[in-house]
Write a structure and sequence with these properties.
By secondary structure, the protein is α+β, with helices and mostly antiparallel strands. The protein contains 20 helices and 24 strands. Helix 2 runs parallel beside helix 9, helix 14 runs parallel beside helix 15 and helix 16 crosses helix 20.
Amino acid sequence: MKTTLLSRLRRLAFATVATVAGAVSCTSVSYAEPDYDTIGKQFALVLQNAHYSRTRFSGEMYAKFLESYLQLADPQQLYFTEEDVNVLRDKYATAFGDYLLAGRTRKFAEVLHHEFSTRALEQIVKAEKILAEYEKQVPAFDSDRTTPRSRRKLPRAKNDAELDQAWRDMIDDMVLTEVLRRENVSRLAAEQGKADPMLKEKPVAEKLASRLKRLRNEVEENDTEDMVARLLNAVARTYDPHSDYMSAKEEQRFKDMIKASIVGIGAQLSEQDDGSTRVEGIVKGGPAAKNGQLRLGDRIIAVDSLNDGQWVDIMFMSIDKVVDLVRGKQGVPVKLRVLSGESAEEREIVITRDEVPMSESLASGKIVEMKTPEGKTRRVGIITLPSFYMDLDSTGGVRCAADVKKILVRMIKENVEGLIVDLRFNGGGSLEEVRKMVGFFTGAGPVVQVRDARGQRERLTVSGKKIFDGEVVVICNKLSASASEIFAGAMADYGRAVIVGDESTFGKGTVQVPRSLADYLPYFSSREGAGMIKVTVQKFYRINGASTQLKGVESDIVLPMSTAALQLGEGELDFVMPYDEIQPAAGYVKDGRLARIMPELQRRSAARVAADNDLQYSKWYIDYRRNITAKNVDSLNKEKRAAENEELVQRQKDINADRKTRYAKLAEQDAANLRVLRLKLDDVNAAELPVITKKEDDSYMEEVKDPEEELEEEVEYPSTLDPILRESLHIVTDMIDLP
């Protein structure tokens, strides 16, 4: 994942007004307004009876429901004061769940939203007034004031006076951040003799006021479905952070995500400060690309979802709402009113929705052919798996285990001796798919254990022979979760793989089952738009008896990865379930070889990491970010902030200078000693695998160029690899060479 210096300097203090990008995808859902009262009642009953904890509604739980609602509605604690919360507790905390059970879900959702929106809009109006002052004169920022970077875990403001000051501090931080960003970009452009991108920018206060306008619009445009979803999610997440309610629209998005296949126009959109929605990317081979009328940088200002003349103005509309208007059923056209990216020319275009190729969401592979210093040639495979996907709506749809098997079989045919399974950023997916995949490397036997609310334990096994018998490294980071943790844990417990990456994985050790609420509604009730409850029904355990809950799967070899700098993981969430252990599963035998050679593998890797400049830069960045996060303070003094930014800019320049020289030498060495072959799903039956060259554009999407990022002069790492993959390759070859 690319995290550039300027992108870090462009950080906004107020996360909820940051630009959000979204892919236009999915199948739309059209229905009459659902019976939310009946839906809410059945949701409450299913949650109590199906959840792993079997916790019943009670006064104590009702108080938690309210706290959970406030966390969802006001995560940065910028709308409600402690005085406000006390009033809300007196009004609702003792009877929160009773509204659902009494069939009053819709009215209660509207009442709570009114409480939220009233306070939110009051504060946004105050912020707009502050920015109106700054349109005349931007502050000098010469005091010693500071402001928190995040307010999520801080005490709420006691009263309106404290909250008003928090907003002024936040607005000042936004303004100062934007001023410094512009000065930095202008300076870099001047140094490189390039056009200054800042000349086209609106005045600072006007630009930030546009973001507040969009935020105001997002609050005001909440419909009944949004209100009910927030209410029911607040209740579900009090049981654990992974149980939730999905409205009909969200249910379809979930299904599309888990199957890695979508229907839409094939474009990536983002909110813009002028209120429009910009086309950031166009999927190659997708409907928009084939149509040819939509261009990168175009700004969409209105949508006619059914191409029937019913236009909807989308200026300052939230990206989710825009996506809902643009997406639709396969074969149905959508009309867009757009402004050209480089001019004010307005035009209308029609695109017929269709299946969108999403190759980056599917399993893919590479084969790295390396010459060792001893003159040997090693072939190591790399399988990248973004998620454990499967099609919930079709027995013949995409399944990741089948895709991985195709790639693995071809790798065996290509005489691969070792394998890297890259699960970085893989948030999980199908338990059935991960079960099959483990069997490719272990053969028949138990894969994972599950225990339900009654304490009944079950071993989930796999049958058949192993496919691959070579050495295996599994790469994980803090965002490798759920099914990824099952795979990594099983491979470690069998002694089949060395786990490398962050200190541990995410730590999600629970199993959720999606259930359509329509199946639980009374016989004569309307089932339209009932949505889905995703409820935690089991905890899973490794075959050695340890839970992955909270602790995750620990790496055998820890490598410095950027995710280590972030506050991520199950332990950072609210209402988490505890860690525990059960008896190891019978029927599995651990191979002791890796444990025997592990000290030598760790010693060799540590020596290489110490000598690798890029991994040392990562270590520095991790320490730097952790220190910033721990302090949780931003200075509002321009001179001090500018000095901090200049230090970062200079460090990046020094790093780039080092990389230019070093990467040139590394590229020469790779040209002589390294060859990388592409092995995507389309290549598995090819007569000969294509060689990946540095110039090859392997992206599935054409993306708009960011003139600011181009000023950073990022130096590309050689050979289509990254430092973590390169070190993992060394670890695999060590495993092959050691007796």
